[in-house]
Structure formats: structure tokens, C-alpha cells
Amino acid sequence: MAEIFKDIPKIVYEGSDRSNELSFKFYDENRMLMGKSMKEHLPFAMAWWHNLSATGADMFGVGTADKRFGCEQAATMEHAYSKVDAGFEFMSKLGIEFYCFHDADLVPEGRDISETNDRLDEISDYIKSKAEQTGIRCLWGTANLFTNPRFMNGAGSSNSADVYCFAAAQIKKALDLTIKLGGNGYVFWGGREGYETLLNTDMKFEIENIAELMQMSVEYARKQGFEGKFFIEPKPKEPMKHQYDFDAATAIGFLRQFNLDKDFMLNIEANHATLAGHTFQHDLRFAAMNGLLGSVDANQGDLLLGWDTDEFPFNVYETTMCMYELLQIGGLRPYGGLNFDAKNRRPSYTYEDMFHAFILGMDSFALGLINAVKLIEDGRIEKFIKDRYSSFYEGIGSKIRTKTTTLEQLSDHAISLGNPTLPDSGKQEYLESIVNSIMFGG
Amino acid sequence: MAEIFKDIPKIVYEGSDRSNELSFKFYDENRMLMGKSMKEHLPFAMAWWHNLSATGADMFGVGTADKRFGCEQAATMEHAYSKVDAGFEFMSKLGIEFYCFHDADLVPEGRDISETNDRLDEISDYIKSKAEQTGIRCLWGTANLFTNPRFMNGAGSSNSADVYCFAAAQIKKALDLTIKLGGNGYVFWGGREGYETLLNTDMKFEIENIAELMQMSVEYARKQGFEGKFFIEPKPKEPMKHQYDFDAATAIGFLRQFNLDKDFMLNIEANHATLAGHTFQHDLRFAAMNGLLGSVDANQGDLLLGWDTDEFPFNVYETTMCMYELLQIGGLRPYGGLNFDAKNRRPSYTYEDMFHAFILGMDSFALGLINAVKLIEDGRIEKFIKDRYSSFYEGIGSKIRTKTTTLEQLSDHAISLGNPTLPDSGKQEYLESIVNSIMFGG
Amino acid sequence: MAEIFKDIPKIVYEGSDRSNELSFKFYDENRMLMGKSMKEHLPFAMAWWHNLSATGADMFGVGTADKRFGCEQAATMEHAYSKVDAGFEFMSKLGIEFYCFHDADLVPEGRDISETNDRLDEISDYIKSKAEQTGIRCLWGTANLFTNPRFMNGAGSSNSADVYCFAAAQIKKALDLTIKLGGNGYVFWGGREGYETLLNTDMKFEIENIAELMQMSVEYARKQGFEGKFFIEPKPKEPMKHQYDFDAATAIGFLRQFNLDKDFMLNIEANHATLAGHTFQHDLRFAAMNGLLGSVDANQGDLLLGWDTDEFPFNVYETTMCMYELLQIGGLRPYGGLNFDAKNRRPSYTYEDMFHAFILGMDSFALGLINAVKLIEDGRIEKFIKDRYSSFYEGIGSKIRTKTTTLEQLSDHAISLGNPTLPDSGKQEYLESIVNSIMFGG
Amino acid sequence: MAEIFKDIPKIVYEGSDRSNELSFKFYDENRMLMGKSMKEHLPFAMAWWHNLSATGADMFGVGTADKRFGCEQAATMEHAYSKVDAGFEFMSKLGIEFYCFHDADLVPEGRDISETNDRLDEISDYIKSKAEQTGIRCLWGTANLFTNPRFMNGAGSSNSADVYCFAAAQIKKALDLTIKLGGNGYVFWGGREGYETLLNTDMKFEIENIAELMQMSVEYARKQGFEGKFFIEPKPKEPMKHQYDFDAATAIGFLRQFNLDKDFMLNIEANHATLAGHTFQHDLRFAAMNGLLGSVDANQGDLLLGWDTDEFPFNVYETTMCMYELLQIGGLRPYGGLNFDAKNRRPSYTYEDMFHAFILGMDSFALGLINAVKLIEDGRIEKFIKDRYSSFYEGIGSKIRTKTTTLEQLSDHAISLGNPTLPDSGKQEYLESIVNSIMFGG
Predict the structure, then answer these.
(1) How many CA atoms lie less than 13 Å away from B30 in the CB half-sphere?
(2) Which one of the listed residues A28, A85, A103, A105 is annotated catalytic?
């Protein structure tokens, strides 16, 4: 098997000086922070679809990048193999230990699902052997239930029971593959689980069907011995006008309503959170405070654009706040990781650009980690927050927290006060100054 | 007591010809539709704040409208009385049977809560007597927990236990007033229950505190014999950067998490739904399909603007789809109604404009009702939706619905199919044609 | 040549009753309004790309519709012919008199531009013969300078002079074709004329190059005897992060800066205006009041979505206000028309859906026309506006309008007034009531 | 005159260590960069309105901050004096050398304009004396033509000629004051120059009137010897639904159309640019490349919120790209500067918060300057851009640039090429890596 990325060396940490473009400026995998190496803090994953399959096509143009990786003809089994070769070489050169996949990323779809499944068996044998050679592992698997026309109205939310069954068959196989490849997570992104118009949609019916499909999936997977976590990946819209897993809060409400919250957690994607009108940090926090933050799709969007741009993370404020949240919950392992659900900009179409993109993303997260550690070690922000609520740790406040008071008692307390003094200043600008002084200070 | 709106006659239905501007063109209160009068279908309410108190001030300018209604000095008890007089005259002239209020709308705040409460007792006696004379009723009450600087960080979510108690005291009084005035609903709009920055916020702590305040409020109200419903009114942002009751799905998740869903329903506001990225109809449907659609704030926003414009409803598509949803659940009574949480545009500053605004709003909803009834009586859309899911009423589909199958069985079914046929066309354009032909047809 | 849309009859006006779905409910081509037939008022055009070429592919899925129209293999010359057959049958059945095209819509791209041009010569002969048989004409032509990877950085704005030349070659040929087919308009939509990031872009350089390309194009076309108009079609973003022809105001500024405003007008697209933060009516008005409203792309977007949804027009408020603007300028002929730059929703994938979509669009515009005529004949809105500025028709006001006064004189006048009285109410709610009473009244 | 900010020392540079919160971490006024001191690079200005007048009121609540600065009663001449005292003490303690003002910020409005003007004469004497003592100067002045109800429909765009005259009178006086105080700039922010609805608006008429008012203002000012620049400050919306000076491109088009571009430049505000759908850098660049970048309102918005949040700049990416643009044009002097059109968050209501906010803003811009200098000195980005267009510096490319070719010649060139090679990669991710390595590197 020939080297594919011939001009690209192994990417190593060289610091932020300018001499070598193809090196990490900030990601130093063995650097220890808070008792763990950077590599342990940052379980990066490569997305089979964007990195090995996507060519830069958009709604107004065909692809610019050649992702055949040396094979003659795209969308063949030969191509499936060359993608595996390319993927493992790519991950090895970058020191990435995990990958994520949809079934449809691995092989071209067959004439029927049986043929597709045979192909999946074949290629997963090959992936497995490469994994054993390299130590690179599956982070999570999933089924692509949105590209094929049959899913035009959704999969679990389809109005066709046959399509629903087809979705079930794909999920079953994708679960089998995930288990075979040692994945400890399985993702549901409901790309077409939603509606285009309420004029033709029974939303309640559809959501119930989705829940039932998930329940059957859990049952099946547990029977096969899967001990990992299922993840819902919220996204509010695109491709559908409205998608049911709108955001973290909606997805959590759904999981609880249908008793799925023991088996499921959330996979939060930065760009999906912002499309829903939230900051990335908000949706991370919301999931985390409900004990349901499971994995992260590590990209960024453009807040002036209204679609999923899936950019490689560049904004270190975002990665800092992400890592700040992740450090608070002790990281994403053993179930999840930081998957780069991100693609090169369309004019960045070379092999080298693929590496630059990952260098950008990994360095941005390394910076985010470094800064988040500094924020935590500095302690000022955490202390400020803790102090801010101190009135609830004593007197009437503590009674509120321990649920040992009543509206009448609180009212009496308020009346006895006359006018309460104003709360202390929120000091947002001061806190922001701290963040900048830590991020940009010596 | 002198007539305040001297040049304004009683507004009556005269049809859509142009001769009399101060008449209803479409709202004919006694017209019967599907067995109920328009008036019964459309339990309109006037909002004390916008209609009797707001002067058109915005972030860049002071008020343009004089809402003293004949008294000398605003923000006095004299003014409080003149607002009552104006309000009841206004509602009588328009044939509106309900009003909604915040405590702070009724009287100027006193030096302390005791004085404020005394004033509220006094003015509510007067309101009660006017209500008895006119038959006009309280739809719902609420407490203003956002205007006073003490609530800068929220009420239930405040970091100050004293402020929290102050909020409790206001809620207690507002509940007492609501009960006294015969209101069958009580609203929580969490105007400052949210955050400006996560740098100073413990979101989990704050949400728990809010839930506890609601639980105490329910307990208190039930003890006082209140048999009505509590409503949460979702809004995603403004004034806060992020508000906890983001949308219907978030609020329902919250209610269920804290076991509040037996006592609470939702008050859906058109403009709040759109600020959250949803259509008005979406949030109505989402609440309704969860059995939690309680009341409606009947305004509209401007989707090209990013703030709550609180416009009087003009768009008959919106009112049609709203009434379509309401007819499906049998209307909002006995708890809720259609509250015009809407304000005149700032340059519409005359008394006459106040009436034009309500004529616009009431006619728009009358048109919406007429159209929704036609859509239902026509039946094509409903039938289309029912037929669309027919594959789930037999065979493998019905097993999915009755939860009597497994992922393996579904997979086997899919494999046996080879390739499933595509689902039937969603026919969105055809369905939209039906809507227009019904709305604009003979 | 066999009939392609076999089950579809000629679509005729039958009124808004429900008996025949495949009929116009409101578009009655011979109905006279303000001295012109509906057909004259509404110069509808079919877009070769959406209607004959697009299959419903989106960023998350392949096409759902089969647009081979009976030929074996897509993207062949055989397919090019079947599209012509389908297009003319389609237009004939709907009574549409115009079509629009990009070069790339007509034939598959050849190995080089010479081969492509030969194919274009061949197919345009066939189109011309069909046109002569049917009387159906070319509204405007254009060149697709965005799909091919070579245009990844733009065409006129490309950083590659060779690509710029390639663009010039395509424009030249598309102009030749437009002239050959009798088109009276030629459109520049700068789909990739913009940037992804300023980190690699010299915006000034690129805009100058675009202007130069347009100037050369005008010069060439005039030399060939083209007497029609060139159109710029503004769009703010998508596919590029920022596009140079952001909106009507930006495009007009550009045209004037480079002395292109004698040869160019604007082609305003509803959905592009809303993506730029404007109402459709705003951009129409802005172009019209500058004498530069030339043609219209008649679709609608979804204001809750951030991308170009290119929906068939459904919202009659929008079509009413569009037709209101067009009636004010005497219509779009002889240069422009109403081109349905709109596509079926992805799940509407049948031939029948194509017709439903056009029925929806044409009926929506017919309703818009009917309503706009009623608004004009009613006269209240026009009179209101005229009266509103009456203070500028006399005294100091008229001096302002005739530029015969100075700041000092105005200041003196103001000082002499003491406090000016408030302007009269803007009466927005009243005016909106008029619109609804006219749109929905008897 | 007593010290007002008693607990606040003179703020000096101490570096980014944490010991002293009330110090600059990055702004070191005498540090030399590219031959100029930081102070020269960063002509900061304080906004009289936000800093000395605004109390934190928003649409849902009254102010939280007490800005009486020791006087008894707000909105008195005593208060006007205390604001001057506070302002000069504030600027002196921060080392700020410029201020900006609206007429209405300086004194409470009198019963008529004559009384107001007398008050303005009086307070400007006082300001002038303070200025002479401290060396602090007026950056620019302006008239508040949006707060008073009389301007509900605009000033230059008002439908009332009397209101138009009133606006003229205020502008005349504000120009007089600006000249008296040595200001070298005068700003037009058209806060209500726009419309709420086209149903009552003649947009063309209104825009012509605005232009005429500006022309008269220029004429007057030049007669008084004003040699500075006028600035238009674009903003797309808020308070009005649509504002005429939508963005830089629109404003420049307007200036050129009415021959105002010799006297006017643009004052670009970060948050206004983003509300228009542009990056801050985009609007800076667009103004700069047209030779019309005059001054900057240095704040930032929240891209997830749809209104002008006017936050103190925190995001160093934004300040870096701003300073990068400013360094390219040699800075904003002698006409403009960096005005903090920014306000404390409502819960940041103390005197100390005012200083923290400015420390944040000044440090963020100092960091931006430091980074921008590094970017320029590094040179990689500039070189990349230059090289990227190299094909236009020779051969056919240079003929395009020198306008010595034709469409036919370009077409011939393209045909001779066969297929052009793809342009080189845009390398966005690589360029973003450079930015991060420079911003966060050693």
C-alpha cells in the first residue's frame, strides 16, 4: 500500500514560530495539564464523511477536491479501501486516535441492503485490521438516514412504514459495526427527522415513532452486549425546515419523556447550537448540568450565515469555553470525544489543506485547553460565581434551597425588609477582562 | 366619570366596505361558526400594560402617547383610577370581555411592598366594581418581576435571596388579586430569568430556584382555593441574553422535570415563538400535542427584526393557523384566552390609533377563525395528513405503533423488501394552493 | 415527439372551487385589469435550471425527482433535447410565454469550451424552432459562472486571469445565444463574486475586475446589436460568505460608480432581498425609485431559515406588494418579467408537483395583481401618503424641496415656532386594516 | 470641585498579572509600535451619552445606575455641570484624550430651542475651560434627532416641515458647539431616518430631503470655517424597521449620488455592521477602499441577539482585524478616532464597573493593535494576498487591469487554453492558523 499523502510528514509539535507550516504550534500531545496529557484531555476524532468523502460540493457547485486517494473510480469498493488507507495514514500522521463513521461513508450502497451489508462486513474487516496495527479506534458509529431519497420525509419520522423498517435495518447493521469496531458510542442525528410544513405533518405521531425506534435500538444493542452510550445530536433546522431535536433542552425533554435518558446522552455540535440561537457553551452547559453531556462535534459556524458551515474551529474563545465545560465534568471519556465534524472551505481543495485544517482545529483546541486550565487554576471566575450566590447558603436563602419554607414566609421576610438592597454588580466587564488577561497574558 | 374616548363610538360590525373606519370589517361577535359564536371562539383580552400604560418609549426615544386619560399626573393613584376608567370604557366600546395585568400596571409602586399592596387592594376594589357593572373579567394576572432594578439578575433566578423573597411577596399578592378578580389563570413570564453571561452564572442553581418558587406558588394558590391554571410564557431572549424558558419545548421539559406539568400550561406568544426560530403555529402545536396549550398572546413580530416588536396581528396566514390549532383542541377556555400583548407603533400615538389597533387585531383573528373553519370543513388537508400515515395502520406499521416488534423484525422486513418504494409526494405546493384557494376563494 | 406530462391536461382557469386540482383558481389570463390582460400584467417565465434540471438534491441528500423526461441517460445531448421538449410542453400547458436559462442548463459541458459551444449552437437551433412553433420566448439568458470548480474563487472576481477569460468566453457565448433566441435581457448573478475570508482577498481589486468584465460585456453585446438590458441580481451571501452584490442599494452604488447604470438595471429576487435583511417590497421600491427596477425573480424564502429556499410564492401579502410596486412603474416589459426562480420542495418529486408548484405561483401572483389593483383603485393608501407630506408643498417646506433656503433660515423658522406640534399619527394599524379589508373583503 | 470617583486611582499600565484589577493589562500608552505610541495609534474617545448619561434602562426595566455624580436632581443644569466634572475626571483617570457628544447629552432640553441653546452656550463654556486645563478634546459632536417625540417619523426624513426645521436648528447649534470645542468631526446618525412601514412612506422623497439637509449643513459649517469632516454612521435598523443608512455600501452610494462624498466620510460602528449582516472588518474595509473610512465606534454586539447591544469590546479577534484595517490607512487622525459607543451591562451598575468597562475596551484594542502590528510585521498574509493575484500582473491579466482588451480577446484566450487549471487553493485554514499562532504565540 503506497503512501497517499506523500509530501506530508508526520505532524509534530514545534511551537508557534513560523519555520514549519506543517507542524503543531500549540498541540503538544504529551504536555501534562492538571494531571493528564493533552492527548488524554483531547480525544480527537476524524469524521469519515467530511475528511475522506466530501469533495467540497455545495448547493451551487460540484466538488473541488479529489478524494479518490489513488483509486481509479469513486464510489467503488476499490475506493472504499483507498479511503481506509488514506484515513489511517491521515490519522497516524496527525496523531489522532479516533474516527467516526456513517455506514454510507464506508462503502457505496449496494442494489439492496443485503449487498450493502456484505460490503460493510468486508470493509470493516479491513478497518479492524488497520485499527489493530495502529491503535486507532472507533469513537462512534451511526447510520446515514438522510441522503437516500427514500428518507425524504425522515427515517423514524417517515410516513412510510417500509422506510421506517429500512432505517431500522441500517441502524441494526451500524450498531453491529460499531460493536465490531469497538466503538463505545452510537449517534442519532435526525437529519430529516422533522418537517417541511405542518400542512402535511402529524408531529406527535412522528415523534412517538422516533422514540419507538430508539427504544428498539437500545434493546437490540444491549442484547448484543453494547455497553456504550447512545447520543442524540441536536440540530434545529437544515435540511428540514424544522428538526425535532432542536437543541439540547428539546432533546433532553424528549429523552426524559420517553424514558431514554438512562441510555442516551447528547452529542453537542458547536455549529448546531449556534443555529439554534445558543452559544456553544450554553448547549454544553445545559447538557452537562443535566448529566447528559456525552460527546462533542468540534467545529464552528459563522454567526452571520444561516446554515451549517461546519468550519474547522478557529475561534479560541469558543474552544476555551468548551474545554472549560469539559474540564468541569472530567472530560468526555469513556464514551465520547472531540469529533471534527468540519470540512475544508471549498477553495481549500488540496491534500495539504486537509492537514492545515486539522492542525488549525487541534491547535485551537490545544489553546482552548491551555486557557481553560489557566482559568481554573486562576480561580477568580469560579470564586466569583460561588460568592455571588452566597445569600442562599444561610438564613432564608438556605431554607429556599432545602425546600423548607413557603411563599407566605418569603413574603413576610420581604415585607420585613422594606426595600431589599440591590444585588451586587454582575461585573461582566471585569470578568471579561480576566478572561482576556489570562488568554493573552504572559 | 367622564367619557374618555369621546370621539370614538361603540365599535360594531359593519362588513368590509369602506364607509366607516371605526367599525369591525370581519369580527361579528354573534356570528355562529361550528356551533359557537365568534365571541366564544375568540376570548380576546386587553393587556393593561401596553394599552393603558405604555406610551411608545423605545430604546432611542421617550413616549409619544399621552396615557394619562384625563388625570393631571402620571404614576399617581389618580392615574391608576383613570386607567381603570379608560380600560373599561375601551373594552366596552370594543366588546372585549377580558383583561390581563401585572401588579405594576395597576398602581405606582409604593415606598415599600406594604404600601404597594395597600394600593393594590384599593384599586382592585374599584376594578372589581367595574367588572361587576360590565361583565368584563380578568383573564389572568401576573407580577412584574423585571422592571425594578432589584430584579436586574432575575427574580426566581436572582443571586440575592432577599430579592427572591421580594419576588415571592409580589407573586403572593398578584395571586391574591387574581383570585379576588376571578381570574382563572396566572402567568409566569420569566423576563429576567436567564443570564447575561455564563461567566457569572450558575445556570443549574438558578433553574432549581425558579422551580422551587413556582412550586411554592402553586401550593399557596391551591391553599387559597385557586382552581385555575398557571402558565409559563416562553421567550428565548430579550431583555436577557439567554432566557431559561426559551421556547415551548424547553418550558415543557422544565415543567416535567420539576413535576409542575399538572398545574402549569403554556401561554404561547406569537412573537416569542418567532424569536426562538419557530413559527407561531409550531409552538402552538408543540404545546397542544403535549396537552399543555393554555393561553395565547396574540401579537406578531417582524421576522426581519431581532427583537420583540409586539405588533398587532395583521398577517391573516398567522391568525388562520393559530385558530386552526385552537379549534383542534376545542379552544382555550375555561383557563386561557387571546390576549393582545401588542402595542401601537410609536408614531401611532392617538386614542383613535388604540382603537384601530384593536380593530386590526380582532378582525385579523376573525378572519383567521373564518378561514380555519373553512379549512376544517373543507377537510382536504386533514384527510391528506391522515392518509399520509396509513402504512402505520396495518401490517408491520401497526406493530410499530403497538410496540409489538423489534429492530431485528423490522430489519428482516426491510431485507425482504429489496428496495422500498419512495414515500408518496408530500405535495406541499398543492396543499398551499388549497390554503390560498380557501382563504381567498369565493 | 411523445407527450411527456401525459396525465396533465392544459391548465385553465376554473375559479376557486375545489372540483379540479389541476386548474388555475385565480389566474385568468384574459381577465382585464386596468386596461391590460392578466397575461400582459404577469409576464411569467420558467427557469430552465430549477424546472427542467434540478432534482431536489440538497446538502444532505441526492435528488428525489427524475428529470430525464423519457431519455435514458442524464447529462447527454439526448437529455438536452428531452429537456427542451419537456420545457415547451410544460410552458404550453401552463400558458407561460417566457423562459430563462444559463448556458449550463441547456447542454452538458463539453471537454472544452469549443465543444460546449458547438452543443449550445445545436440545442439553440432546436429551441429556436420550438419557440417559433409556440410563440414562447426567451426572457433572459445568463452564464453559469459558479458550478464548475474553476469558479471556486469567483469569475470576474477570480484571482486567476485564465478563469476570468473563461468566464468572458462563457458570457460572450451566452450573449450570442440570448440574442439568437430573441432575449431582451441578460443577467449577471454573481454567485461566487464575493469572498470566503478577507484573509486572502483584495476586495477592491476584485470589484474593479468585475466592473471591467461587465463593461467589456456591454461593449460586445452592443456591437452585436443587442438592444436589451443587462441585469444585476443582488444576493448577499450563499454560496459565498459575502457576495459583492449584497442588495439593491449596494448594486446600484456599484453600477453608478462604474458608469454601468445606463445599460444595467436590477433583477430583484424576493428571497435574496430577505436574506439581506430587507422585505421584498423594499428592494423593489429601492430599485424602482432609482429607475433601475428591471426584472423580478418571483419566489419566496422562509424568514426563519438562513438560506435561499427558493420556494414557489405562496404568501399573497408578498405578491400583492410586489404587484403594487410593479403597477406603479407600468410593469416590467419590454425588458424583464416575472421569472419563477423557484423549485419544488424535495419531497414534491412528481411531474404533477411541478404543475402544482406553478399553479400555486401563478395563482399567488394573480391574487397579488387583483389585490394591488384594488389597492390602487381604492386610493386610500396613496392619498394618505400624499397628504402626509403636504407640509413640504408650501411655505418653508416648499423652499426645502426647491433648494432655496439655508440652514440658518430653517433654524430661524424653528426658533420662531417655539415647539413644533407633533407630526400627525402614522396610522400604521389603520393602513394595515385597509390592506386586509381589501384583500379579504367582498 | 470634589473628586467623584473617590476610590478609583489613576489607571496605569501594570501588565497582565492579577495583582491590581484597576490597571491596564495591555494598554501601555507610551509603548512604541511601528513608530508611533499606543496613544497615537489609539485615539480613544468617551461617549457622553452612554458613559455620563445612561443608567441601564432597557425596554423591560428602568435604570440601575445612578449617574447624578453627586448632584441632587437629574436633568438639571446642576446635573449638567456634575456630568462635566465626572466626565473630565473619568477621562483623566483613564488617560483618554477625546470625547463625543450629542447636544441632548450636555443639558436638559429647555422649554424651547432658544432656552436649550442658552444652556448649551453656558455648559460649553465650562467644558471648554476644563478642556483647556486637561488637554482633553472634542472628537466629534452631533445632534440628538431621535429621542424627542417630535422626531417620531425622523428628522430629515420627517413628514413635517416644521420638524425638519427643528432638526436644522439643532444641527446648526451642534455644529456651532463642535467648532467652539475644537471638534474636527461632525456625525449624522440617522436614528429615525427610515421607515416603519412602506404603507405610509415615500422613501424617495424622504431620502432627497435628508440629502438636502446634509448639503445645507455642509454649506453652513464651511461658512463658519469648519475644516473637519462630516461622518455618516450607518445602521440598518433599530429603532426604525428600516433605516436608510443601512450599511457602508448603502451610505457610500447615497453620498456619491448626492455629491456629498467630498465632505463626508463614514463612522463605522462594529455592532451596526453586524446588525447589517456584515463583519466589522467588512464594513471597515468597504469604507476604506473607497477612501471614506473616517471614524470608528468601537463596541461589539452579540451575534446571537438581534439588537444593538453596544457592548464594550472584548473579542480580540475583532479588535485585531479593526486595527489591521486602520494601520493600512495610516490611522483615523486628524478627523476621527475610536469612540467607545458602548455601555455597561445593566447589572454592572457601579462607578467601578464604568472603569472596568473602559479598561476592558482599551486593553482589547491595545491587544488588537499589538496583534495587528505583528500580523503586518510577519507579512505572510499580505504576501499571500499579493501573490494570489499575480496572474493579473502579466499577459492577458495585465491587459484586463489596464482595460486594453475585449471580451472577444478574452474568449479567444480561453478557447486557446482548453481547460484552465484550477486556481490555487485559498488556504483559509492555513491563514487562520497563522492568525492564531501570531495572536497566541510567544
Answers:
(1) 3
(2) A105
Q: Does residue A18 carry a pLDDT above 80?
A: no
Extract the C-alpha cell encoding C342.
423557484
Bridge partners of B258, per DSSP, are: none
Task: Report which DSSP code applies to A188.
Answer: E
Can you list the alpha helix ranges (DSSP code H) found in D141-267?
161-180, 203-223, 248-257
Residue pairs between chains B and D whose CB atoms are closer than 8 Å = 99
Distance of CA C60 to the CA centre of its chain: 27
Kindly determine whether residue B146 and residue D60, on different chains, have CB atoms separated by under 8 Å. Answer: yes
Between CA C270 and CA C277, with CA C273 as vertex, the angle to 5 degrees is 135
For residues D278 and B343, what is the distance between their CA atoms, to the nearest angstrom?
A: 31
Contacts of D226 (CB under 8 A, 6+ apart): D175, D178, D179, D186
What does the alpha-carbon distance between residue A158 and residue A206 come to, in Å, rounded to a whole number? 7
- Touching C (3+ Cβ pairs <8 A), the chains are A, B, D
If you write DSSP's letter for every residue of C289-318 in order, what string do you get? HTT-EEEEE--B--TTSBS---BPP--HHH
Categorize the per-residue pLDDT at B1 as very low, low, confident or very high, splitting at 50, 70 and 90.
Answer: low
What per-residue confidence (pLDDT) applies to B442?
62
Cell of C229: 438590458
Q: Which three cell numbers stand for residue D204?
A: 424617495
Q: Does A32 touch chain B (CB under 8 A)?
A: no
Q: What are phi and psi of A272, to 5 degrees?
A: -75, -40
Taking residues A180-194, report their average pLDDT: 97
What are the b/e assignments for D262-282, b being 16+ CB within 10 Å?
A: ebbbbbbbbbbbbbbbbbbbb
User: Which residue in this structure is represented by grid cell 448619561?
Assistant: D53
Instruction: Please count the other Cβ atoms lying within 10 Å of the Cβ belonging to residue B59.
Output: 14
Would you call C152 and A61 a contact, using CB atoms and an 8 Å cutoff?
yes
CA angle A7, A8, A14 (to 5 degrees): 135
The tens digit of pLDDT for each residue in B144-176 reads 999 999 999 999 999 999 999 999 999 999 999
B79 is catalytic: no
Asked if D208 has any chain B CB less than 8 Å from its own CB, the reply is no
Catalytic residue among D50, D102, D278, D282: D102
Helix axes B380-388, B428-440, angle to 10 degrees: 160
Residue A54 scores a pLDDT above 80: yes
Alpha carbon D84 to chain centroid distance?
A: 22
CA distance linking residue B49 with residue B57, whole number of Å: 13
- Distance in angstroms between the alpha carbons of the first and the last residue of chain B: 47
Q: Which residues of D181-213 are buried (b: 16+ CB within 10 A; e: fewer)?
A: bebbbbbbbbbbbbbbbbbbbbbebbbbbbbbb
Cα–Cα distance between D363 and D375 in angstroms, integer?
A: 18
Contact yes or no for D198 and C419 at CB 8 A: no
- Distance CA(A169)–CA(A148), nearest Å, equals 14
Give me the pLDDT at residue D19, please: 73
Lowest-pLDDT choice from B230-244, C164-178, D11-25: D11-25
Model ipTM?
A: 0.97
Nearest Cα neighbor of B182 from B129, B115, B218 is B129
**Torsion angle of C-alpha atoms C211, C214, C216, C218, degrees rounded to 10:** -140
Q: Do C241 and A305 touch (CB under 8 A)?
A: yes
pLDDT of residue C408: 98
List pLDDT tens digits, range D267-291.
999 999 999 999 999 999 999 999 9
Cell numbers that stand for C293 in this block: 427596477
Q: What does the alpha-carbon distance between residue D111 and residue B38 come to, in Å, rounded to a whole number?
A: 50
DSSP string, A154-182: -STT-S-HHHHHHHHHHHHHHHHHHHHTT
